[in-house]
Amino acid sequence: MSALESCRLLFIDDEEEFLNTLVKFLRRRKLNVATATSGAAGLDWFGKNEVDIVVLDIKMPDLTGIEVLRAMRATKGSDFGVIILSGHAHTDIALEAMRAGADDFLLKPCAVDELLERIDIAFDRVLERRDV
């Protein structure tokens, strides 16, 4: 079993077709993936479950990814990694996400192999933080 197979991943995105496509790929790679299609649903799931990595869309109709990220960091600190996805290549958005506690930032649509690589890197960082 690879280290990634023990990763508990929460993927939050309101674009269901995009979400389903990436989740199918990640599950084929034996990742344990939970999903939510809104910020509120993602926060609810996050509050009730252990999570290693959150992949989070920046723009959703109910809450922004930044709002969700800030709420998550306020609840569980830095005990998990966050990869922000955005369909907009604005430096301001990326900077705001990083200031709010994101570990990484990817533009949508992203290649599934690139997302998997970023998840792997983020998970390694989470494991290192937990060992300290």
Mean pLDDT: 88
Largest sheet: 5 strands, parallel
Number of strands: 5
For the record, give the distance between the C-alpha atoms at the N and C termini, rounded to a whole number: 24 Å
* Shape summary: globular
Question: Helix proportion of residues, in percent?
Answer: 40-55%
- Could you state the order of secondary-structure elements as H and E? EHEHEHEHEH
How are strands sequenced across the largest beta sheet? 2-1-3-4-5
Q: What percent strand?
A: 15-25%
Our count of helices gives 5
User: Which structural category do the helix and sheet elements fall into?
Assistant: alpha/beta
Gyration radius from CA atoms, angstroms: 13 Å
User: Low-confidence runs (pLDDT<50, min 5 residues)?
Assistant: none
Q: What do these coordinates show?
A:
The protein is an alpha/beta fold and 132 residues long. The mean pLDDT is 88. The protein has a 5-stranded parallel β-sheet with strand order 2-1-3-4-5, sandwiched between helices. The two termini are 24 Å apart. It has 5 helices and 5 strands, in the order E-H-E-H-E-H-E-H-E-H. Helix 4 links the parallel strand 4 (81-86) and strand 5 (104-107). It has helices at residues 16-28, 39-48, 65-76, 91-100, 112-131, and strands at residues 8-12, 32-36, 53-57, 81-86, 104-107.
Quick overview:
The chain has helices at residues 16-28, 39-48, 65-76, 91-100, 112-131; strands at 8-12, 32-36, 53-57, 81-86, 104-107. The protein is an alpha/beta fold and 132 residues long. The longest helix has 20 residues, at 112-131.
Features:
globular, alpha/beta, 132 residues, 5 helices, single chain
